[in-house]
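We emphasize that the prediction below concerns an isolated chain of 257 residues; any contacts that depend on oligomerization or on bound cofactors are therefore not represented. The input was used exactly as deposited, without trimming of termini.
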Amino acid sequence: MIQAVRQDSRGNLPVLWDSRKKGDGRCGLRVLVIEDNLDIQANIADYLEPEYLLDFAYNGEEGLKLACANDYDVIVLDLNLPRLDGIELCRRYKAEARLQAPILMLTARDTLDDKEDGFAAGADDYLTKPFALRELKMRIGALANRPRVINALELRFGDLVLDPSGQTATIGEASRRLSNMEADILKWLIQEAPNPVPGSTISYRIWGEDPPASGALRTHIYNLRRILSELRRGGGPAIAIATDRERGYRLCRDGER
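Result of the prediction step, given as a token string:
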């Protein structure tokens, strides 16, 4: 299991923060709190830890890793997070996690437009700051009673079929296994098709604010193009990745470039 990382109140080096280490035999709900305010983290921990198993993440990137790697009953998500904001984190979690926990957005953004953005990104509930800890606990309990969602939907573009859970791409009778990054990139291209996806957007979704050398993304795109070409040789129709200068990458059918 990946453990959450939390800074101490003086801003020193991160320390592991995992409520299950106390060994007190708690068997309550398992909750991930993604929140960069240390005081709010501490208040939530003091109020919920007697009953719940809590993990904390200080930034969006770490929060997404924890959310996708572990089986939580509820995820409490702030929106103004470093490295990856809560709206994008929610979208990616809903698209990538196979067994999905309900998400409660906990934020100071309190306008109707803010709430609309949150629910559109996939939030199951929305609580604005300042908030009562008792209400937070009630909402967590209500969300935990909802049926869990299993994300096993196939994505399609023309005759191209992507199975995100199995990480396979299929055209006609031909199939190929994809790497994690190849599957993610192809998924985003299918979701946005026929519109292009900027290379900067893809890089940020994969690597956050610290991408590797500029050639890394081009290498993954090259590999995907080769795979799609091999699927065509298997007897299927042509599906390709086109480059729109200054606009990004997009999926297209034969003759549409």
